[in-house]
Amino acid sequence: MNWNLPEEFVTPDGVVRWARIGAGRPVVLLHGTPFSSFVWRDVAADLAADHEVFVWDMLGYGRSEMRQGQDVSLRAQGRIFADLLTEWGLARPHVVAHDFGGAVALRAHLLHGAEYAALALLDPVAVAPWGSPFFRLVQEHAAVFERLPGNLHEALVREYVRSASSPGIAPEVLDGLVTPWTGAAGQPAFYRQIAQADQRYTDEIEPRYGDITIPVTVCWGADDEWIPPARGEQLAGAIPGAGLHLVPGAGHLVQLDAPGPVLDLVRSFLRSSPGQHP
Hints:
Blueprint: E1 7-11, E2 14-21, E3 25-30, H1 41-47, E4 51-56, H2 74-88, E5 94-98, H3 100-112, E6 118-122, H4 133-140, H5 142-145, H6 150-162, H7 171-178, H8 183-195, H9 200-203, E7 216-221, H10 229-238, E8 243-247, H11 254-257, H12 259-272
Helix pairs in contact: 1-12, 2-3, 6-7
């Protein structure tokens, strides 16, 4: 599948790139950090056989605009996502969200009135505390890391992304995830999004998880070393009716590590909560 995001959505802080694939009931896929919608390419291709699949790169990520001075925080991304749903004319789509995308989907729903037929959360950033030692180190010294020589920066990002997988990432997939973070625009953008990450954006909504009334399912890589599965148990316990599904042999990048089981779970999720086409 040739991954391309031909559409544009203009925000005050820059252009967001997105794509619509297939036809049928709408499903929206959200990526996390430091990834892009590229992480969904195989899942999106499969779902597009009988669904209208929407994908987008968060502002400052992937193929979306990267520039100095952008607000790329979870606060901004949640607002942008709610606006995108309006732009797409989607009143109650199914939403599948990974990592930071989970926090974006939760904030859009709880703070900005975005309605979903149902929500699937894959290894989301949603429960405190979060942030690995590496993440916190870079966050505290983002301006220093931003000045790394390009080859050292790329090596750092490559190893960081690779560590999100348990069985390993195919070289061409790793290249697709790392390349947007290189070069004159990509390198500072990588550290910008880390510098603006702040647990307060999930602290704001965590007390409200008990108010969620839409169907929610939580999926977690059993071998996730970035966010331990115990966080998944905590999150599923906080959301009424939510169930937790552990995926054996998968790390944090569960949709890449175990695409077959993840697709089975997503399709089961879509069947069990059919919702309504807007």
